[in-house]
Amino acid sequence: MWIQPRQQLLEVWRAMARSAVPAGGWSWGGRHGRNSISDAEQLLCLLGPATEIPSFKLDQPDETADDVLDALAELGDSVEIPRLLVRRLTEYFSTYTDDSKTPVFSGGTYFAAASQVPPTAAQRALDVVDSFSVAIRLSLATIGFTRVFRTVVRRPDLVSEVDALESMASRRLSAAMVGLLRSFSVDVFDVGSPEGQALLETVNQQGLPTRQVVESLHRELRQVKAGVRDITLGSGQVTDIDNDNKLFQCGWSWGLVANAPKVDTTADVGEQRDGVAQSAPYLYFTVVALDCIRNLFSERTRLLGLLDEEQNRLSRSLQLRWDLTQSYWSKVGRFGSGRWPLEDLPWRTVDKVDSDYLSLLVTSIVVQDLTRGQPTESEVQRVGEVLAELAQRARITRRPLFNDPALALHSPGFRLALEGTEAAGGERLHWLVADFSPLLLKQTVLVAQLLRHIELRGQVVTLADRTWEHLRARRFTSGQYLHLWDQTPGAAADQDVQLPSWYYTERVVESLIAAAGLVGTAPLRSQALAGYATDLLAEADHLFDQELLSVSAEAGPAMSAALHGARSTLRRAHELMGNRPGTAAVLAAEVLRELDRLAAARQKATGPA
């Protein structure tokens, strides 16, 4: 890969160290100012790689890598850096907790108005799923960090700081989990309604009669429907879902759903605020929620025991919704026996909004669903082709036209109308999402990891590299924010562009972490290369045995050393045959070359036969 994720992540860290600590303090905020999401995204640019990539760890000072220390030199040494993180994380959790000790999950400055009228203070204070999601990721990373760091801390005052930080992170984690439970929505509608007709138009790729499509859709979703029927915690009872004249969709709304019941929990979550969000799924917020919930039952979470007993109970409820939502959108996206609805770009929602960004969101759910099963190479290849077409349509791998409307996907981005925000006073607010490129890169890397055919993986990796080239062109190229992301190419005259976007930078960091995961996997095994290596090894083994047979017991030290080296190389080649036949072939060739040198030397010494 051209991406070189380790080097790129170190460049991001170097830029953060350079820009985030003026005069010994900490520079919060970015292009969008401070809010509970942006500040968490800024911290995750550091804590994400530090907790997800072993070679980037910061919680064990004696084991911190030299290049990591070099990148973060302006933050201090291996002992000072984790202490700084403890202080900044404590400041974050304190800032976004109100006077009643209730964690705050407001969207703040990320809320946008359609007109020049700014959002009201009550609107900016509304809880939003993005904040719940980033809180879960940051809280889990913080708890994991403190668990390890505490084992090397000796000073009593620092131990108290670490314990207090873990307690604050655990409280915020519980509150965010409750918030996601209360933001989940199941939208049921008639087959003949505009929403029902829009869904049928999306899934009916073969032009079949409506009744036949409805029956097939009911059969395909029967397990999802059975699971959704029993969901009550935080969501309320779902009605009419068993009616054959009804269709449904499930996922997460943009925030706490209006009239969502309070969750009965023993966890210290503070006040459970009333919601105002429309009781209907939003694809963007659904994907955001799915991505964070996966962390609750990840291997790292289980091994470190990051959840307490009550959090495990809440996690099981969220995992049920995760399973049902993953299954629903994956089945709808791949419905039918011919062309998938996902392949019919762009995706159209039930309220008849269509966009390539929505196609990318559905694709990301399908990719995650494929990673937990055993997909066929054909299925993965089809998803890769969708990603390649989306890259072309978004002018990532194609030159844009003059005033190309496709560029709006990147700047200003895709606009979501947040129905229900008007209930807090003022006009209906919007949410701008402009992460098309980093999301595409992340999904492309995940698809490459699923592919087992060398040529197909090579094609997808090439797409990832080209997407990265597009992203590289969008970084700051000079000044104190060098190697951070500005998100808006061609807008240098805009004053706001002088500050980095933590929203965008954190999503690029996520993509680089995924790329590091791909680089860390074993290379694909080529059958042709394995056959070639097997033949080389067979000849090397035979000639080595012949050499041992012909060498006298009085062989000199040089001859003995050469044969000992050849034996070790052959043994190593046999060990690597299973996973790295190319390397095994090279080692076998080295042995053959050495044996030929010995044979030639012996022939020269004895003279011609």
What does this entry look like structurally?
With 609 residues, this protein is mainly alpha-helical. It has 2 domains: 5-191 and 232-519, Glycosyltransferase (Alpha/alpha barrel); 527-606, no CATH class. The chain is built from 21 helices and 7 strands. Strands 1-7-6 form a 3-stranded antiparallel beta sheet, with no helix packed on it. It has a two-stranded antiparallel sheet with strand order 2-3. A hairpin with a 5-residue loop joins strand 4 (347-348) and strand 5 (354-355). Helix 11 (283-293) runs parallel beside helix 14 and helix 19 runs antiparallel to helix 20 (557-576). The chain is globular, with a radius of gyration of 28 Å. The two termini are 53 Å apart.
Q: Which second-level CATH architecture of the largest domain applies?
A: Alpha/alpha barrel
Given as residue ranges, the uncertain stretches (5+ residues, pLDDT < 50) are 490-496
Strand content: 5-15%
What would CATH call the class of the largest domain? Answer: Mainly Alpha
Please report the total strand number as a whole number.
7
Distance between the termini: 53 Å
Global mean pLDDT: 90
Count of helical stretches? 21
Order of SSEs, N→C?
A: HHHHEHHHEHHHEHHHEEHHEEHHHHHH
Shape: globular
Number of domains: 2
- The CATH topology of the largest domain corresponds to Glycosyltransferase
Structural class designation: mainly alpha
Strand order of the largest sheet: 1-7-6
Q: Main sheet?
A: 3 strands, antiparallel
